[in-house]
Amino acid sequence: MPKVNGASLLRGLIGTAGLLVVLEAAGRLGAWDTERLPLVSTVLLRAGELLADPEFLVSARSSLTTWALALLVTIAIAVPAGLLLGMVKPAEVAVRPLIEFLRPIPSVALIPLVILLYSETTHMRITVAVYAALWPVLINTIYGVRDIDPLAKETLRSFGFGPGSVAYRVVLPGAAPFIATGIRLAASVAIVLVVTSELIAGGIEGIGVYITIAASGNRLDLMIGATILVGLFGILVNALLVAGENRLFRWHRARAGAAT
């Protein structure tokens, strides 16, 4: 699992700040028409103002609620399914062709179909996000189960523990670092698909709807500002989940380091 130290974070911040300064200077020197493409400083100012804009906050709450629900549904489906398929090899062999068929299908391509199935936009957004986010959690869970030492499972079975106890006491804890990584990847995928579905399907509330309305008014500064805030949210969630992984699964990182 990734571990970001202070030096790496500082270098990243310096690089980002340097790029923004260069873009700001290029815009002020006339590299492009700032009436059409606003300056970096203007976009950052608008992004800050959006955090106090009631209309945007309502849209953000709608998108983040949908994102959280989609992530919970994803975990509820993918983790038990991954544990089952990882523990029961014949089931995994039987289902693997279906997984490999469905996994490459772009979730965005399913939006028109899902719109026909659901008249309520929240259900549509959740369905599309769950479809996209399901695969990282499912695949990581399966590989996590496979990574467990067979001797640990056999030892527990030799003491009379049944499949349920083995799964609870050995399989789930052993696969937990892989599951956590899958959830972290799924969190980023889910927020992308929620906003994308809002952009394509529309609706009443949502960041994607807000961006569409801003585009209809030719407010590129608001469009980019809202997009930046979505990106910052994704970075924040990823950083929190990485920190959680590093704190909870130090033993896994130590074992991986010893293996290499």
From TrEMBL:
This protein's membrane topology, according to the annotation, is: Multi-pass membrane protein
Instruction: Cite the entry's keywords alphabetically.
Output: Cell membrane, Membrane, Transmembrane, Transmembrane helix, Transport
GO biological process per UniProt = transmembrane transport
Q: Name one Pfam family in it.
A: BPD_transp_1
Where's it found, cell-wise? Cell membrane
Transmembrane portions of the chain:
67-88, 100-118, 124-145, 189-213, 220-243
**In this protein, which residues make up the domain named ABC transmembrane type-1?**
60-241
Q: Which GO terms describe its cellular component?
A: plasma membrane
Similarity-based family: Belongs to the binding-protein-dependent transport system permease family.
Q: What is this protein called?
A: ABC transporter permease subunit
Q: Which organism is it from?
A: Herbidospora solisilvae
